[in-house]
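pasting for ref
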Amino acid sequence: MSLTIIGGGNMGLAIATRVLDKGIVSQEQLIVIDPSDQKREQIVFELGCKSYGSLTDKTVGESDTVVLAVKPQTFTSLKDTLCPVLQSTQLVISVMAGVSLDTLRTGLNNHPHLVRAMPNMPAKIGEGMTVLHASGEVHRDKKELALDIFRAVGEVLYVENEDLVDAATALSGSGPGFVFSLLEGFLGGASRVGFSDDQAKLLVRQTFKGAVRLWNESGENAAELRRQVTSPGGTTEAGLNVLKESSVGSALENAITAAYKRAKELQQSSK
């Protein structure tokens, strides 16, 4: 496979780095396009692949797969230079939040082979979560190709309903931000009860890591595990009562709902 990634930002570089590490493409088969001279020099130095500043028959038209890893608002200007060099047989994968398949198809002159993907920030370390949806014209082999690219950056979920890509934008896409907010609260609490910054970081990191691993490996649901760690009249119950009084669970649900609503608004504005 030959691959062109348009956009050398965080996600574009995360995908480029991981597909090289996993051997999905070779350095000779990978092109990263970015307008910044400094960024292109960095890409060539760190990844050893080719990097160019413009969309041409050579940089785009000769690749099997093209990944659009740019900001959604960039698509309006990008599509005018992309369409003339795009080949009808190429697979185009978009990681632009809120840009629907209909918007992609219209912007790319009814290009048939389209995939929407929503990866998240931990893709940078190979621990990402990506949700994918493909247009009906994408054959099984091209779909597998898209799945392989994102397996390189973590776990992948394929969905038949495109609306779930927007839901994933709110959940797994925005989710790391919600988790980091929780971490801030844990670290603040650790500091308040007397731990140093280094001690707090160790305690909080292993608490999150251990809890998630136990949930993952025990086969128990989260509610059951919460009950198991909560003794009547004990310290966990005292803390959980505060969380309940503050409606933390409902607040998290509302945060995901608000993020989903915003994802749909962005989708409408991108049309």
